[in-house]
Amino acid sequence: MRLLLDTNALLWLVAGDRRLGAQARSALPTLPTLPTVLEQAAVQRLGIEDAHLVRLQELPWQHRDPFDRLLIAQALAEGLAVSTADQAFSGYGISVRDARA
Q1: Does residue 31 contact residue 42 with C-beta atoms inside 8 Å?
Q2: Angle between helices 66-78 and 50-58 (to 10 degrees)
Q3: What is the dihedral of CA 68, 73, 78, 79, to 10 degrees?
């Protein structure tokens, strides 16, 4: 499964924070540094493409955080689920995986 991590889920993973739930944690290894986490988890970086910006322009203003809005646009454009603790993401018709689960 391809999964887009919200910033909070990624930071919880790197820090070993217990707010990242067992289900989310089992999908990704817990490692001490961000580059190691990304490499070991075979995470691919997703750049900002024109298709993402088009989707961003079309989004309703249910969520005001600009970075989260970009993640939502990327998830919509790429057909990705998002791992996040922010329930505002679900109002955009994307698949949301609770990062605390």
Answers
A1: no
A2: 110
A3: 80
Q: Locate 29 and state its tokens.
A: 């290894």
Compute and round to an integer the Cα radius of gyration of the chain. 13
Q: How many CB atoms lie within 10 A of CB 3?
A: 18
Amino acid identity, position 40: Q
Indicate the Cα dihedral angle 89, 91, 97, 100, nearest 10°: 60
pLDDT tens digits, 47-75: 999 999 999 999 999 888 999 999 999 99
Cα 34 to Cα 62: distance, rounded to the nearest angstrom? 30
Domain boundaries along the sequence of the chain: 3-98
User: What is the model's pTM?
Assistant: 0.70
Return d(Cα 15, Cα 65) in angstroms, integer: 23
